[in-house]
């Protein structure tokens, strides 16, 4: 009987201590150090680069099992900045983004996997009221304590899509319709 009690106590101790190490951390996206950059063809002659300045969201990170991690990112589509006010107005109009009707774009992960140095984040990308399953290919930039006693993680991720898949003008499948997004995310562990 004493052996059974000792074995049970040891098993419970091991289970409870492993649960401490396998916890999932909640990290909140630091909006002042995060943005989404876009790259699009300008009539096939050059590249148009810009960014969305207003990004928020949450990362749930499990460092013992990345497949238990998740990501939710929301972008304010009206925060588009192409470094030219008239072009910003045109790109946020109903010709393209239609920010008045669709003020938010979101990405909500459905699966996370590690593949070498890459983190593959598959999820539902909702843009202009249309939702499609897509995969962000991300790499960790760094992780650790900051000077203020907090803990941060930084990631860079890439995603590409055909703008006609989301109801924007263009020629389906052409290089001119391809939009490339780069996500630069810094997140702080919630206290």
Q: How do the strands and helices of this protein lay out in sequence?
A:
Layout: H1 2-21, E1 25-29, E2 35-42, E3 46-52, E4 55-61, E5 70-76, E6 80-81, H2 85-91, E7 104-115, E8 118-127, E9 130-145, E10 151-162, E11 178-189
Antiparallel strand pairs: 1-4, 1-11, 2-3, 2-11, 3-6, 4-5, 5-7, 7-8, 8-9, 9-10, 10-11
Quickly describe the structure.
This protein is mostly beta strands and 191 residues long. The chain is built from two helices and eleven strands; from the N terminus they run αββββββαβββββ. It has helices at residues 2-21, 85-91; strands at 25-29, 35-42, 46-52, 55-61, 70-76, 80-81, 104-115, 118-127, 130-145, 151-162, 178-189.
Structure explained in plain terms:
- The protein has 191 residues and is mostly beta strands.
- It has one domain (23-189): Lipocalin (Beta Barrel).
- The chain has helices at residues 2-21, 85-91, and strands spanning 25-29, 35-42, 46-52, 55-61, 70-76, 80-81, 104-115, 118-127, 130-145, 151-162, 178-189.
- Strands 1-4-5-7-8-9-10-11 form an eight-stranded antiparallel β-barrel.
- β2 (35-42) and β3 form a beta hairpin.
- It starts with a helix and ends with a strand.
- Mean pLDDT is 88; it is low at 3-21.
List the defining traits of the structure above.
191 residues; Lipocalin; eight-stranded antiparallel barrel; 2 helices; mainly beta
């Amino acid at each position: 009987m004493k052996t059974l009690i000792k074995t049970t106590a040891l098993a419970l101790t091991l289970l409870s201590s492993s649960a401490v190490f396998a916890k999932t951390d909640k990290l909140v996206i630091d909006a002042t150090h995060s943005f989404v950059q876009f790259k699009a063809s300008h009539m096939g002659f050059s590249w148009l680069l810009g960014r969305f300045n207003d990004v928020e969201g949450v990362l749930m990170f499990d460092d013992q099992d990345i497949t238990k991690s998740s990501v939710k990112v929301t972008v304010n589509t009206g925060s588009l900045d192409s470094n030219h006010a008239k072009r910003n107005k045109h790109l946020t109009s109903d010709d393209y983004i239609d920010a008045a009707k669709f003020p938010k774009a979101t990405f909500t992960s459905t699966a996370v996997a590690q593949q070498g140095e890459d983190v593959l984040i598959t999820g539902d990308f909702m843009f202009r009221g249309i939702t499609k399953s897509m995969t962000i290919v991300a790499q960790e930039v760094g992780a650790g304590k900051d000077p203020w006693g907090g803990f941060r993680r930084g990631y860079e991720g890439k995603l590409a899509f055909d703008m006609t898949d989301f109801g924007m003008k263009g020629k389906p499948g052409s290089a001119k319709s391809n939009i490339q997004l780069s996500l630069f995310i810094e997140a702080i562990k919630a206290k």
